């Protein structure tokens, strides 16, 4: 017995003297007494760590039950698609006024470019619907649903490069490591899907692979929240989720027995160590078991009517395409998945504006409009919020040589750009905000990224200022210490 090695915890206990014990107790009791005098309610209030999320949410009745975010990586050109500016054609070929560009930051591709000639839109614009929304002829299907959309034409952001700007939109910070919007919402509001993750992400890119945009995992990561709330990425090829299938010789009944035994072992570890990630492990094993049945049914389009498939366009059967992901988004929404993030890369037209922008629009226009029509005819648009937009816009002036028409491009433009929203709680047929006559700066109802995030959370029944998570000694929220709900776009 003399040589028996003690467990570290038992060894620590053996070293505690009577004087040491009461000294520590006195400090603890004194600290509690002081805290109770300063704020007696806070001492009594319990805030245990839970992987189920805060039980007090939602703060008020939500307008939206779920979100489908059609994120357009690379930044669509607002002045060529939605923000019609006749002044650009009048000034075509002339140097953009120095008063607009003075002190502004651009990417390294035009940061040192002395000549910055204005170029007019490369598409034709027309007004559509009862709302009279201006939409480019590159987006004919979106134009048909213009009366269902709310165009926000006064968005602005802070970063001039892709990855920080995308991270800012999705997590509220330009630096990786914060929870993404989908993780915040699923943590706060809890689970709604029975046999699927509550946060799913899908990615696609232009067929020409014209842009080198990378999809980083932290775009759908849980940051400092429990990993249970990170997005589950559905792959565009092969099995949507790896390792769901049972190996040869292992049937579903045997799999169930194995999971039950593993769960018992994990619960023993949870009691001993109290690590919340063990709870996540238990939950993910169970979710994987459920997904063995739910995912094959989800991805089987054979029960979709032909007219629905036709509505999404010819790419709908090509796994990993934007059209395929849009139909998947509707099917996920039907199964009560709370946050669906479809990210499509290819909008970074630095040198291929005249020949690639229209191709990019053809890939995305029809599926985006089809999703709106599909949700609407099923009565789901009433409680589903759909968002379409990128991380910033494109410059009204040219990147490159104006004589080299084939290689025309537009640089990154964080100072004003357009996105649209549709569905639950958002006014349809509205154009909100405005940019100046060059499409360079917002001049009416400016909307910052944090304002946008606050508004999304409001539609989900959350007061963004009250929804926080304590990490490393401070309280964090999606909107940091900023953001105001954009009440002008709400019904």
Give a brief outline of the structure.
The chain has about 500 residues and is an alpha/beta fold. The chain has helices spanning about 10-15, 20-40, 40-45, 80, 85-90, 100, 140-145, 160-170, 180-190, 250-275, 275-300, 305-310, 320-335, 355-375, 450-460, and strands at about 65-75, 125-130, 135, 150-155, 200-205, 230-235, 340-345, 385-390, 395, 410-415, 415-425, 430, 435, 440-445, 445-450, 470, 475. Strands 1, 4, 5, 6, 7, 8, 11, 12 and 15 form a nine-stranded mixed β-sheet that branches.
Number of helices: 15
Described by its quaternary structure, the protein is single chain
CATH class of the largest domain: Alpha Beta
Strand content: 15-25%
Shape descriptor: globular
Number of strands: 17
What CATH architecture of the largest domain would you give? 3-Layer(aba) Sandwich
Regions with little confidence, pLDDT below 50 for 5+ residues:
31-50
Supply Rg. 26 Å
What class, by secondary structure content? Answer: alpha/beta
Termini Cα gap? 75 Å
> What is the makeup of the main sheet?
9 strands, mixed
Number of domains: 3
Tell me roughly what share of residues is in helical segments: 25-40%
Question: What is the name of the CATH superfamily of the largest domain?
Answer: Alkaline Phosphatase, subunit A
């Amino acid at each position: 017995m003399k040589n028996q090695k003690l467990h570290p915890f038992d060894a620590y206990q053996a070293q505690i003297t009577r004087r040491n014990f009461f000294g520590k107790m006195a400090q603890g009791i004194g600290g509690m007494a002081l805290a109770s005098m300063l704020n007696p309610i806070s001492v009594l209030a319990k805030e245990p760590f839970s992987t189920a999320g805060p039980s007090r949410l939602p703060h008020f009745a939500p307008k939206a039950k779920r979100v489908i975010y059609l994120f357009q990586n690379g930044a669509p050109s607002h002045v060529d698609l939605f923000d019609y500016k006749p002044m650009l054609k009048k000034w075509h070929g002339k140097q953009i006024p120095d008063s607009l560009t003075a002190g502004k930051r651009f990417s390294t591709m035009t940061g040192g470019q002395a000549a910055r000639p204005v170029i007019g839109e490369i598409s034709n614009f027309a007004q559509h619907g009862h709302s009279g929304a201006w939409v480019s002829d590159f987006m004919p299907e979106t134009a048909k649903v213009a009366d269902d959309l709310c165009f926000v034409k006064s968005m602005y952001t802070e970063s001039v490069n892709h990855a920080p700007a995308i991270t800012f939109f999705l997590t509220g910070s330009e630096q990786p490591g914060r929870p993404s919007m989908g993780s915040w919402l699923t943590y706060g509001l809890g689970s709604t899907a029975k046999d699927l993750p509550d946060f799913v992400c899908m990615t696609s890119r232009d067929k020409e692979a014209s842009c080198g945009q990378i999809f980083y995992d932290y775009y759908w990561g849980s940051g400092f929240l429990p990993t249970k709330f990170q997005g589950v990425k559905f792959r565009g090829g092969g099995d949507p989720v790896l390792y769901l299938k049972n190996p040869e010789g292992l049937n579903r009944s045997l799999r169930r027995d194995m999971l039950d035994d593993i769960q018992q072992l994990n619960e023993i570890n949870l009691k001993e160590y109290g690590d919340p990630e063990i709870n996540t492990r238990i939950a993910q094993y169970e979710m994987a078991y459920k997904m063995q049945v739910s995912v094959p049914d989800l991805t089987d389009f054979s029960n979709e009517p032909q007219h629905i498939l036709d509505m999404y366009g010819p790419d709908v059967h090509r796994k990993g395409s934007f059209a395929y992901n849009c139909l998947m988004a509707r099917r996920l929404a039907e199964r009560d998945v709370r946050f669906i993030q479809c990210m499509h890369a290819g909008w970074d037209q630095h040198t291929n504006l005249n020949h690639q922008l229209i191709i990019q629009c053809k890939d995305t226009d029809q599926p985006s409009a089809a999703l709106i029509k599909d949700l609407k005819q099923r009565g789901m648009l009433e409680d589903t919020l759909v968002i379409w937009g990128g991380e910033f816009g494109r410059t009204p002036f040219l990147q490159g040589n104006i004589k080299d028409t084939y290689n025309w491009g537009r640089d990154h433009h964080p100072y004003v750009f357009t996105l649209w929203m549709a569905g639950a709680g958002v006014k349809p047929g509205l154009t909100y905000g405005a940019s100046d006559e060059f499409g360079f700066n917002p001049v009416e109802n400016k909307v910052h990224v944090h304002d946008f995030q606050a508004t999304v959370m409001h539609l989900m029944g959350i007061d963004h200022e009250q929804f926080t998570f304590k990490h490393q000694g401070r309280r964090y929220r999606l909107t940091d210490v900023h953001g105001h709900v954009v009440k002008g776009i709400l019904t």
